[in-house]
Write a structure and sequence with these properties.
CATH superfamily of the largest domain: Protein of unknown function (DUF541), domain 2
Radius of gyration: 35 Å
Largest sheet: 5 strands, antiparallel
Number of helices: 5
Shape: elongated
Number of strands: 9
CATH topology of the largest domain: Alpha-Beta Plaits
Length: 233
Amino acid sequence: MKNWRIEAIIIAIGIIMLGVMIRNGINDFREKDRVVTVKGLAEMEVPADKVVWPLMYKDIGNDPAVLYANLEQKNKAIVQFLKSNGIGDDEISIAPPEVIDMQAERYADRNVNYRYNATSVITVTSKNVDKVRKLMAEQAELMKQGITITGGDYRYNVVYEFTGLNEVKPQMIEKATKNARAAAEKFAKDSDSKLGKIRNASQGQFTITDRDANTPYIKSIRVVTTVNYYLRK
């Protein structure tokens, strides 16, 4: 009889403990459903470290041989201008001239004074952005030699780039993650909860844009990190 009572007590204790474990498991399962999703933003302004500068000019004429001789002479003058101001051979590329025969154009005006219209482009590709920008302001030296660098053609716009993204990525991701955690902690506090572990996270895509239309040589880098945190009572 005594052994039967001991066994009953042991079974009862086991049932109680099992009930507690089941309840705690259910509570833990419910806690896992309590998640907050936050976004962390990181921004940085950096100077461009690469510039592509197309120097485009046009020439006209009726004699192809004379026209090509003029183009060659002007190309030499432009290259000399660039080299004398510190631009290296490896930073200069000369594209073949683009020549249009106006009489062969289907919709061209037949009464034009010059038959041939030529476009020549010399491109400077350099990592010395400050030097190239200084030269852009000194293009009047070429005008004195009868060479007018023209603009307005979308194919030959100056392009500024930032190539050092991999160097700033770690610190930007760290900053974005910290900002996301700060937002999550604020949400947890406002909801009378405690912030738990990270459930999952996604880095987001880095974007590099001009800071504004007037300073394309200054870039704005941006990344948004999305983090899901568990909330605890």
